[in-house]
Design a protein that fits this description.
single chain; 86 residues; mainly alpha; Non-ribosomal Peptide Synthetase Peptidyl Carrier Protein, Chain A; 3 helices
């Protein structure tokens, strides 16, 4: 199971993207491509992900590669969910 749809919903809600987020694929770029995604909104996205999935981002996890694309963010969340179940 992938968190892709949940991540798209979080991005839509937190960034106010509305229906634009439904067009996102795993290859959709985030950082540098969405004007709505700045340093402050990254924190809001992190908090929303932590609340929804019950995972915690470590400070070392917050980097450009995690937030490069919808897919990289989804993969990170999926990995964290697998680790939390182990």
């Amino acid at each position: 199971m992938t968190a892709l749809n949940g991540i798209k919903k979080i991005l839509a809600d937190v960034l106010g993207l509305g229906e634009r987020a439904t067009q996102f694929t795993e290859n959709s770029y985030l950082l540098g491509s969405l004007a709505e995604l700045d340093s402050i909104s990254v924190v809001s996205v992190i908090v929303a992900i932590e609340d929804r999935y019950g995972i915690k981002f470590d400070d070392n996890d917050i980097n450009a590669s995690v937030f490069a694309t919808v897919g990289s963010l989804t993969n990170f969340v999926d990995q964290q969910l697998l680790q939390s179940k182990a």
